Amino acid sequence: MIEPQTRRRARSRRIPLLVLGAVVVVLGGFAMAAFGSVLAPHDPYADSLQNTLLSPSSTYWLGTDDAGRDVLSRVLVGARLAVLGPVVVVIVSALIGTLFGLLAGYHGGVVDSVVMRVTDLLSSLPALLVAVVLTGALGGGYAVAVAVTCLLTIAVDMRVVRGAALEVRQKAYVAAAMTLGLGKWRVMFVHILPNVVGLVVANVFLNLAHVLVVLAALSFLGLGIPPGAADWGRMLSENIALLQSQPLAAIAPGAALVLFAVSMNLVGDWVFDTISNRERS
Amino acid sequence: MVKAVVGYAVSRLALMAGLLLVVSFVVFSLTYLAPGDPLDAIAGNFPRTPEVTAALTAQYGLDRPFHEQYLSWLGRAVQLDLGESIMTRQSVLVEITERMGVTLFLSAYAFVLAVALGVPLAVLAATRPRTIWDRLAVTVSVVGVSAPAFVTGLVLLYLFGVRWPVFPIYAAGDGFADRVAHLTLPAVALAFMALGLIVKFTRSSLLTVLDQDYITFARARGVPPRRVLLRYGLRNALVPVITALGLVLIGMLSGSVLIEQTFSLPGVGGRMVEAVTSTDIPMIQGMALLIAATVVLISLLVDLAYFAVSPDLRRRFRS
User: Fold this and answer.
1) Which of A37-41, A151-155, A175-179 shows the lowest per-residue confidence on average (mean pLDDT)?
2) Which residues in chain B come in under a pLDDT of 50?
3) Contacts of B102 (CB under 8 A, 6+ apart)
4) What pLDDT is attached to residue A1?
5) DSSP B91
6) Which residues of A touch B272 (CB under 8 A)?
7) Alpha-carbon distance B277 to A140, whole Å?
8) What distance in Å separates the CA atoms of residue B1 and residue B249, rounded to the nearest whole number?
9) Which positions in chain A touch B32 (Cβ < 8 Å)?
10) CB atoms within 10 A of CB B86
11) Of B243, B154, B105, nearest to A217 (Cα)?
12) What is the pTM of this model?
């Protein structure tokens, strides 16, 4: 039980320190994705037989892997592959999911129940395994992995937007707008959308964390991303054998992945809580 | 009462059967969606003389229309005849059942660990807000939900398999005790993800329930605190907990694939990755059907559990 007093205090403090830290990590991750290849001290693909399995030193901060490639550079450059796919998936699915979610929530009735059956079905399936099966069977490139993940994320977004739109639709101002004879699209986009957009934003962050992990898991399993690529999932699976001699080669990309995913979830949860608090008061 | 449960179960079963039918259609279509022609999908790189081609075409009815092929495939699948793996030329069903033991053991072990640790932790956190337990619970739920199982597994593998070799790594062990020893690290890694979900759902559900008037009233009446917590609190907080357990079980399907890969365990998941990376279509189809059937079974169990814990749901269904 939280006493009313603490509740007030929690709300008055603007942004919790932890969330602020998470925002910094997320921004740092995006910066790495954008400038990783500039920041990297070495060529992430340059192998050298003299420099295999070096321990961390002032030249190689995180040491080198079994092909003599600099681990730090590979982690930095790997951010781009790790972030780009999820960003594309999340934006595309937010757009499509919002559109169809609004339509379903606005219309209700048969359209709504058909749409909800489909999204129920899609979201009851384990996303990673569906992606594994389809990427494998379709002779999976990275594009297939991204497309499949996108489809499953659309289902999630649609459910969220539809639920919120259904609630907003009951409000008096929506009824007023419809009584005024405003068009369906206008009511949907001008009167309903602004009231659900916060949820969409929160969901974008939560999805980003989820898709990041799913795509990394796919490449960890050897799907989508070609062998040897500077990618976090690939590095993890290829360097497990090095745990004995150079543990950082596998642990560094893993740590980057977890740190990024946890931060993204923290930001998403915070946005979500802030919105639901504001709505309640 | 019994009648209500049976009716409920039958209506859910019908829905699930429909769902399986849809999935089976998609799974069958994989033969056609896969790169190359269906014959490649079925026979792989097997050397093909015109006689072999003719025999396979006849055997799988590739000269017949699509819907007839689907129906005959479905007929065989229902009888658990899933064809044979391109890679090993062994029956898909036999290969899957051979490897099922490790996967089931791993998942059950992880599930027990997660429930045994997660529920008490959530109860401690909900009854003692702003203490170390509360913080621990929140941390575990955020990190557990976000950290992919293969990273957790990797860290455990490094710490307790390589750095301080407490547990055996590689292989799954023979006999119960040996198997427990071999599967402890993988199970802990898998349980961590589950723990996050269980703690998150149980804690927030219990917090909501403990805020209700009937709890205050029970306390005011002098009902012993333990009874208030278990009988009035936890009992009424169970529905979201069951939701979490369902999510956990479904999450373990993907989690076990990742964990088996991380620890090189000879389970179903590892075989699935092999099948997928070598485009072994019959094997992939078998795996996909297995996954779908498991998901359906889990959702059925979850629905029945809702029914068991919620008198409200029972009442609604009866009328």
Assistant:
1) A37-41
2) none
3) B172, B183, B260, B265, B266, B267, B268
4) 44
5) B
6) 132
7) 9
8) 28
9) none
10) 21
11) B154
12) 0.86
- Identify all chain A residues contacting B257, using CB atoms and an 8 Å cutoff: 128-129, 132, 221
- Determine, for residues B261 and A220 on separate chains, whether the beta-carbon distance falls below 8 Å: yes
Mutation target among B22, B146, B260 for the A interface, most CBs of A within 10 A: B146
Q: Which residues pair with A70 in a beta bridge?
A: A64
CB B157 within 8 A of CB A240: yes
Estimate to the nearest angstrom the gap between the alpha carbon of B302 and the chain centroid: 12
Q: Are B267 and B260 in contact (CB under 8 A)?
A: yes
**Tens of pLDDT, residues B174-211:** 777 888 888 889 999 999 989 999 999 999 999 999 98
Residues of A in contact with B162 (CB under 8 A): 243-244, 247
Residue from the list B142, B154, B275 with its beta carbon closest to the beta carbon of A266: B142
- Check: CB of residue B149 under 8 Å from CB of residue A236: no
CA distance A126 to A120: 12
For residue A9, the model assigns a pLDDT of 47
The per-residue pLDDT for range A191-238, each reduced to its tens digit, is 888 888 888 988 898 899 889 999 999 989 888 788 878 888 888 888
What is the predicted pLDDT for the residue at B318?
A: 66
What's the CA dihedral at B204, B190, A223, A248 to 10 degrees?
100
User: Which residues on chain A are in Cβ contact (under 8 Å) with B163?
Assistant: 247
Nearest to residue B190, comparing CAs of B136, B113, B267? B113
What region does B136 belong to: left with phi over 0, alpha with psi -120 to 50, or beta?
A: alpha
Structure tokens at A158: 């649609």
Q: Which residue of A has its CA nearest to B16?
A: A121
State ipTM.
0.84
Q: Do A1 and B258 touch (CB under 8 A)?
A: no
CB contact under 8 A, A264 and B291: no
How many separate helices (H) and strands (E) can be counted in chain A? 11, 0
Measured between alpha carbons, how far is B294 from B19 in angstroms, rounded to an integer?
12
The single residue listed with the structure tokens 């033991």 is B101
Nearest to B279 among A6, A136, A220 (CB): A136
Residue corresponding to tokens 């307790």: B160
Q: How far is B141 from chain A (nearest CA, A)?
A: 10
- Give me B59's structure tokens: 């055997």
**Contact A239/A65 with Cβ under 8 angstroms?**
yes
